[in-house]
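Bug #77: duplicate submission created two jobs. Keeping one. Sequence:
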Amino acid sequence: MKHANLEPASLFNQQFPEDFLRQDLAAFKEENHRLNAQLLELESQNAILQQQISEVEAESFFGEQLREREIETSLFFKSLFLDAHFPMLLLDSHGKVLEINHFAAKVFKKTRESFLQTNFRFYMDKKSSMNFLKLMQLYCKNDSDECPTDHIFSFKNGVSFTLSLSKVKVTWHQMTAYLCFIQPLHFKMMSDQALRIDNLIIEQLREAVMITDTESKIVRVNQAFCEITGYLESEVIGKSPAILSSGRHSPDFYQKMWLDLQHHGWWAGEIWNKRKSGEVFPEWLQISRIHDAFNGKNYYAATFSDITERKAFQNHLDKLAFYDSLTQLPNRSLLKQFLSARLHRTEKGQQPLAVLFLDLDKFKAVNDHFGHDEGDLILKEATQRIVSRIRETDIAARIGGDEFVIVLSRFKKKANVLSVVDELLQSLASPYVTVNGVHRLGASIGVAFYPEHGENAEDLLRRADSAMYVAKRSGRNRYEIFDESQEQDLLHSSHLASLIWRALEDPSAHIQMQYQPVFAVESPSVSFKYEALIRIFDEQRKMVYPNDFINYAEQNGLMPQLGYVLFEKVCQDLVAAQLDAGVRIGVNLSPLQFRNEDLVTKLEQIAQRYDLPLSRFNFEVTESATMENLDWVNMALQDLKSKGCRILLDDFGTGFASLSVLKTLPVDVIKIDKSFVDDLEYSEESKQLILAMIGMAKALKLKVITEGVETQAQMDWLVSKGVDYIQGYLLGKPQPYFLDSST
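Kept job's structure:
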């Protein structure tokens, strides 16, 4: 080896092992110190890590517990919602069902799953559905803490329920949901609310309420009771209802009331009570017995209202319904009630009655010439005269126009009644003096006795009326006692009334118009016009002629209606016949028709319905009609004339028309009455009268028709004297068709 021969001196000079050991020891200590430091640091870090691990473990443990608690809580609340014994739903803002509990599903009698994702309002009726939609829209827009609750809706099956929307909002799949509570309405569930409402109703009722206990002591009143009676609540509680007694009712009245209460459980009627001020007033009272099953006692609930104003109004209505507003006498309705009641109390043959039917003579002339105001003054004065001649036990009634009925009773013999009748005739015949002049009237009176002439009100009135017409026909200003021979007249009148009404109700079945041709003298073979004549069929289809029913129709106010029906029937026949436009039809007008201001308008309307001009018609009016209603007749005839109609004055010579009247009327033709033509061949007087009438017509430039021409001799003489037209059986009888028609 290279170093094996080293000298000991060199080896001496090298370091000893102790130095190395010290160096190693020092290095070891240093390393040990460093390692200890690192160990301490690692231990510190380990402690920190251990602490962090503990914290993580603790946090994990608590988190697990929280999750378990949340799951338990969620399950609890879900179970609370689903299994709650109260119907609940979870809805979105449009009313869609997001969740529903079992109880709510049971209310609807459907499965819970069938409700999900359906709209709640589809289960309501139409009105509730619309109101629910409005409520949801209002609630969703409402940001305040207050929201409308306890709204009442109805299901389609008719069951009502209350609905409350909770202000609690929950997040459901990124949307806002609303908790909805529903509750079917049952009386028991609403008892507390009902009690509150009942109290409110009682207090706010406008009818007085008074409740008494079994001892007839007042235990409750409302505000209306205090207002009506004037008593404070504290003044009547514990008192008897007798505090209100007016003293107008007998003990029997209250006893009957009490018996009805016990028997029926209620009583209602009109009663007079007294206010605190002492004022007596009428009230409508209703009392009901109420049994309290809880304590076994009975209470009595009374409701009443002050009917002072109602009674005053009812009295006014009664006066309008049963009294004539002009004379203040009873009217027809009250008269019949009075007469029927009096007859009911009267024993046959023991207490005779007399019924007087009175009609003022010439009263119509006062109305026509002086107006209705003047006529009213006459009626009032006549009423005073009538009332002054009868006793308080008798009755006088105005039954229409100038007609009065008087019922006399408690007389010993008929002579006493006739004495009163004579006094009435004398009194009513005395002059009536007004600012417009002196009027002299009279009266026609018919008398019927009970039981001789009838045993009921209807028969007595009808027979007294019949006797009155006999008095009028016998000269007026007199009386007639009903005679059995007049019964046939009554039956005939009743028969005529039946015929006329049947004709009015069904003209096509019961009315036939017949047409008599009128010929011009220069062409006696061609009819240029016709006169329409009405016929009525009776029950056996037997023809009834105008002479039998026209007077009755006029006397009973049926002629205006019959006249319009007649004219419409003529229009129908004229259209069906398709006559030449130059052929005119003559139609008779009744005097009563001229009292209607719309006469011409109505005639024109009827003609227009058949596309006929009014100028296709001649209108005939009797001479007597012009004298009765000269102004009205003249006005209507002028109107007809302006529309192209020709005017004929019928029955000329039988009335009292003067030359000045004829000049006033717009007449085109006069018709000489048949009665003059009948005697033409035997009476020189008739000839002279006809000549005078022809001369008068020619002087006024009027045409002349002679009717009733039945012989050639009559016709030849009339033609020779200058008449223009001939009408009569000689040339043509009335037929239900037109001579030149195709029928």
